[in-house]
Amino acid sequence: MRILTLNGPNLNRLGKRDASHYGVLTLEGIERALREAYPEDDFRFLQSNHEGELIDAIQAAEKDRDGVLINPGGYAHTSVAMRDALAECRLPKVEVHLSHLANREGFRQTLVTAQACDGYVSGFREKSYLAGVYLLKLLAEEGSVRT
Fold first, then answer.
1. Is 8 part of any domain?
2. Sheet architecture: strand order including 93-97
3. 3-class DSSP state for residue 131?
4. Which range among 80-89, 105-114, 128-137 shows the weakest confidence by mean pLDDT?
5. What letters, b where the CB count within 10 A reaches 16 and e where it falls short, cover 98-137?
6. Is 97 an active-site residue?
7. Domain containing residue 23: CATH number
8. How many other C-beta atoms can be found within 10 angstroms of the C-beta atom of residue 36?
9. Is 147 within the bounds of a domain?
């Protein structure tokens, strides 16, 4: 499967951020774990602190990708523009979060972007990404996509 893996703002700081919420792996460590767990799959990774760059990648994904795995970071709670790009994307989409959002601050309880995805995984640190890919693969096999 050809998977676009997007990471939003501040995720380039993994390994330096609060390990109790985000774990100890760097973003590069998470990418390595995905490649090792799913060696048959083709991953394209993008991390950006810029909303427009992430939206451009979502819009281009249908050209050569089979699914989107996204951790929008703080944009998950605020970005209607990113939500709209995800809603238009006809690929399977799974949102992932490292921290357990239900145990976090109230403003993190609203997931604007997840509303446009097939589902989301939260609270398992780097294992959220592994579970997200597993779920993407199931969705692709079933031909299931939320539109």
1. yes
2. 42-47, 2-7, 67-71, 93-97, 119-122
3. helix
4. 105-114
5. bbebeeeeeebeebbbbebbbebbbbbbbbbbbebbebbb
6. yes
7. 3.40.50.9100
8. 9
9. no
Overall domain count for the chain: 1
CA-to-CA distance for 100 and 97, rounded, in angstroms?
A: 7
Number of other residues whose CB lies within 10 A of the CB of residue 91? 20
Mean of all residue pLDDT scores within the chain: 92
Look at residue 43 and tell me if it is in a domain. Answer: yes
- Cα separation, 135 vs 144, in Å, equals 11
Can you give the residue range of the structural domain that contains 81?
2-142
Tokens 């939206």 correspond to what residue? 55
120 is catalytic: no
What is the per-residue burial (b if ≥16 Cβ within 10 Å, else e) of 3-28? bbbbbbbebbebeeeeeeebbebbbe
Q: Which amino acid is at 52?
A: G
Interval 11-64: pLDDT, tens? 999 887 666 666 678 999 999 999 999 999 999 999 999 999 999 999 999 999
Of the candidates 75, 97, 120, 129, the residue annotated as catalytic is 97
Flag whether 99 is in a domain.
yes
